[in-house]
Protein backbone atom coordinates (compact mmCIF):
# COMPACT_ATOMS: atom_id res chain seq x y z
CA UNK A 1 0.00 0.00 0.00
CA UNK A 2 1.33 3.41 -0.88
CA UNK A 3 1.70 6.20 1.61
CA UNK A 4 -0.29 9.42 1.53
CA UNK A 5 2.96 11.27 0.81
CA UNK A 6 3.60 9.15 -2.32
CA UNK A 7 0.00 9.61 -3.45
CA UNK A 8 0.43 13.40 -3.25
CA UNK A 9 3.68 13.14 -5.24
CA UNK A 10 1.91 11.03 -7.84
CA UNK A 11 -0.82 13.65 -8.21
CA UNK A 12 1.80 16.38 -8.78
CA UNK A 13 3.69 14.15 -11.24
CA UNK A 14 0.46 13.53 -13.15
CA UNK A 15 -0.15 17.27 -13.51
CA UNK A 16 3.36 17.81 -14.90
CA UNK A 17 2.96 14.88 -17.30
CA UNK A 18 -0.42 16.13 -18.48
CA UNK A 19 1.06 19.51 -19.36
CA UNK A 20 4.53 18.58 -20.65
CA UNK A 21 3.68 15.22 -22.26
CA UNK A 22 0.74 16.54 -24.28
CA UNK A 23 -1.66 14.54 -22.15
CA UNK A 24 -1.75 11.27 -20.26
CA UNK A 25 -3.06 8.41 -22.34
CA UNK A 26 -2.23 5.34 -20.24
CA UNK A 27 -2.04 4.50 -16.52
CA UNK A 28 -1.27 1.08 -15.05
CA UNK A 29 -0.52 0.29 -11.44
CA UNK A 30 1.12 -2.76 -9.96
CA UNK A 31 2.03 -3.60 -6.38
CA UNK A 32 5.50 -2.10 -6.79
CA UNK A 33 5.12 0.62 -9.46
CA UNK A 34 2.97 2.95 -11.52
CA UNK A 35 3.35 3.21 -15.28
CA UNK A 36 2.06 6.36 -16.94
CA UNK A 37 1.97 6.84 -20.70
CA UNK A 38 2.20 10.25 -22.33
CA UNK A 39 1.82 11.18 -25.99
CA UNK A 40 5.41 12.45 -26.23
CA UNK A 41 8.75 12.32 -24.38
CA UNK A 42 9.62 15.46 -22.44
CA UNK A 43 12.94 16.49 -20.89
CA UNK A 44 10.93 18.52 -18.38
CA UNK A 45 9.17 15.38 -17.14
CA UNK A 46 12.49 13.52 -16.89
CA UNK A 47 14.05 16.35 -14.85
CA UNK A 48 10.99 16.56 -12.63
CA UNK A 49 11.06 12.81 -11.92
CA UNK A 50 14.81 12.97 -11.17
CA UNK A 51 14.09 15.70 -8.64
CA UNK A 52 10.95 14.24 -7.06
CA UNK A 53 11.39 10.43 -7.08
CA UNK A 54 15.03 9.98 -8.07
CA UNK A 55 14.72 6.45 -9.42
CA UNK A 56 12.43 5.77 -12.40
CA UNK A 57 12.43 4.04 -15.78
CA UNK A 58 11.32 5.31 -19.16
CA UNK A 59 10.89 3.82 -22.60
CA UNK A 60 9.26 4.45 -25.92
CA UNK A 61 5.88 2.79 -26.07
CA UNK A 62 5.90 -0.56 -27.83
CA UNK A 63 2.28 -1.05 -28.82
CA UNK A 64 1.91 -3.98 -31.20
CA UNK A 65 0.03 -3.63 -34.47
CA UNK A 66 -3.38 -5.29 -34.41
CA UNK A 67 -4.28 -8.31 -36.51
CA UNK A 68 -6.11 -7.68 -39.78
CA UNK A 69 -8.97 -5.28 -39.76
CA UNK A 70 -8.75 -4.37 -36.09
CA UNK A 71 -7.93 -0.84 -34.98
CA UNK A 72 -5.63 -0.24 -32.02
CA UNK A 73 -6.33 3.31 -30.88
CA UNK A 74 -3.70 3.14 -28.11
CA UNK A 75 -0.94 2.87 -30.70
CA UNK A 76 -1.49 6.48 -31.74
CA UNK A 77 -1.98 7.86 -28.23
CA UNK A 78 0.97 6.48 -26.24
CA UNK A 79 4.40 7.72 -27.24
CA UNK A 80 6.42 7.28 -24.03
CA UNK A 81 6.03 5.20 -20.88
CA UNK A 82 7.25 6.37 -17.46
CA UNK A 83 7.58 3.69 -14.74
CA UNK A 84 7.67 5.06 -11.20
CA UNK A 85 8.53 2.64 -8.36
CA UNK A 86 6.45 2.71 -5.17
CA UNK A 87 9.14 1.07 -3.00
CA UNK A 88 10.11 2.84 0.17
CA UNK A 89 7.05 5.07 0.19
Structure write-up:
By secondary structure, the chain is of the alpha+beta class. The protein is built from three helices and four strands. Strands 1-2-4-3 form a four-stranded antiparallel sheet. 13% of the residues are buried. The model has no long low-confidence stretch (mean pLDDT 85).
**What is the string of SSEs from the N terminus onward?**
HEEHEHE
Task: Work out the strand percent.
Answer: 15-25%
Q: What distance lies between the first and last C-alpha atoms, to the nearest angstrom?
A: 9 Å
Helix fraction bin: 25-40%
So how many helices? 3
Structural class: alpha+beta
The Cα radius of gyration reads 14 Å
Largest sheet: 4 strands, antiparallel
Number of strands: 4
In the sheet with the most strands, the strands line up as 1-2-4-3
> Segments where pLDDT lies below 50 for 5+ residues?
none
Please, what is the average pLDDT? 85
Write down the overall geometry.
globular
Could you list some keywords that capture this structure?
89 residues; alpha+beta; 3 helices; 4 strands; 25% strand; globular
Question: Helices and strands in order, then pairings?
Answer:
Blueprint: H1 4-20, E1 24-29, E2 33-38, H2 43-52, E3 57-60, H3 74-77, E4 80-85
Antiparallel strand pairs: 1-2, 2-4, 3-4
Helix pairs in contact: 1-2
What's a quick, concise take on this entry?
With 89 residues, this protein is of the alpha+beta class.
